[in-house]
Design goal:
This protein is an alpha+beta fold and 380 residues long. The protein folds into three domains: 51 residues, no CATH class; 182 residues, Jelly Rolls (Sandwich); 130 residues, Arc Repressor Mutant, subunit A (Orthogonal Bundle), CATH 1.10.10. The chain is 47% helix and 21% strand. It has 14 helices and 13 strands. Helix 2 packs parallel to helix 4. The N terminus and C terminus are likely disordered. Keywords: Transcription, Transcription regulation.
Length: 380
């Protein structure tokens, strides 16, 4: 709709104004604006034009969504500057929620994540498990339904640091949600994966921003944040690949039984473990267990046990200040020389050099003394 106020009657002037209006209408049709006012002045005579979009303004249009996404992204970066201003892993005031920041690229290296939801707010990570590659950035999030050792690299820079949130999967909370969802969720159609990346939808994005907002305030973190974490877990469970977390807890298929054996490994990695014990824990024959274990983790059971021990030893050396010999004994190695050989084979450096590298990368604080707590328990 075009409304024209007082104006001269010259056909030439009217034609010029109409050409300008046509251009504005074309530009308006490609934008999220609903109304544009033009004010032409010629020989002190004011000419006012109000150009209305030929379509009604829709806040959910692609242009409006893009603007809203940009505003939300800037807000997330502001919150990270408050909550996690330094590189490395920052534990939030809420148990199980950590913030990750990297100001420079990190090369491909072995990592081990506990069952968790990793949401990237800026930057990009790539995970490698066997011949599979998982990319997760501000449009993707990563879900690990079982503890998996894999390799990971990070894209980041000083101008655009990597910013991410890690939320540990609380099996008790998941079990409660599964009971509530029991009447609406059917059985998984296919065997799920232990790790996958999936698109970040608007509802989950909103919950993530509300979680960070709550963590800024100690009172909000204590009262509101636990409920928001529960909402995030709910949205992941009801998402397109929530079957993986459900299967890891219910033990109703091969994946769930392997997940049970994995929890046994992480509870008793420092003790005596063999394939017979793990197969019995999973309730499978040796042949079936070996095949299904490799399908989930891309490695053999005993290689997984070895990798788990080495990752825990590295953590003890970096965070708790243990030397190589003490860390080796703590995780179940009887021979310090065997530990050093296998450590260098996995991480590419000796224990001493790897600890130095990790502290430089993550700008680690001085070692802390913490009583070890077994986080993985066998679900009933």
């Amino acid at each position: 709709m075009i409304r024209q106020g007082s104006h001269g009657r010259s056909p030439q002037r009217a034609s010029e104004y109409l050409n300008v209006l046509k251009i504005c209408l074309k530009l308006l049709g490609q934008s999220a604006l609903g109304c544009l006012m033009l004010n032409f002045r010629h020989y002190s005579l004011a000419r006012h034009y109000i150009v209305m979009s030929p379509r009604p303004f829709e806040p959910s249009s692609p242009s409006a969504q893009s603007v809203a996404a940009g505003v939300a992204q800037r807000r997330l970066i502001e919150l990270f500057d408050v909550l996690a201003p330094t590189p490395g892993m920052t534990r939030s005031s809420l148990e199980g929620v950590s913030l990750m920041r990297a100001n420079s690229p990190m090369p491909r290296m072995p990592v081990m994540y506990e069952p968790s939801i990793v949401i990237v707010c800026q930057g990009r990570k790539r995970g490698y498990l066997g011949d599979q590659i998982f990319q997760y950035d501000a449009q993707q999030y990563l879900v690990l339904s079982v503890p998996l050792p894999f390799e990971c690299e990070t894209e980041a820079s000083t101008e655009e640091p990597f910013l991410g949130i890690s939320i540990r999967v609380d099996l008790t909370m998941v079990a409660e949600l599964l009971m509530a969802l029991n009447e609406t969720q059917g059985a998984a159609q296919n065997e799920p994966l232990g790790i996958y990346s999936t698109p970040l939808d608007p509802a989950l994005s909103s919950a993530v921003q509300r979680l960070l907002d709550a963590l800024v305030s100690p009172l909000d973190a204590r009262i509101l944040a636990p409920g928001i974490v529960r909402e995030i877990c709910y949205r992941v469970l009801t998402g397109e690949q929530g079957d993986a977390i459900r299967a890891a807890l219910t033990h109703q298929n091969h994946f769930g039984r392997v997940a049970k054996a994995l929890r046994r490994i992480h509870a008793d990695y420092h003790g005596v473990l063999d394939v017979d014990t793990l197969a019995a824990e999973a309730g499978m024959s040796l042949a079936v267990f070996h095949a299904q274990f490799k399908a989930v983790t891309a490695t053999s059971p005993m290689q997984y046990v070895k990798t788990t021990r080495l990752h825990h030893a590295r953590l003890l050396m970096v965070q708790d200040g243990l030397n190589a010999g003490a860390a080796a004994a703590r995780v179940g190695y009887e021979s310090a020389s065997q530990f050093s050989r296998e450590f260098k084979r996995l991480f590419g450096l000796s224990p001493v050099d790897e600890v130095k590298r990790m502290r430089v990368i993550y700008d680690s604080p001085p070692p802390r003394i913490v009583k070890p707590v077994a986080r993985y328990v066998t679900a009933v």
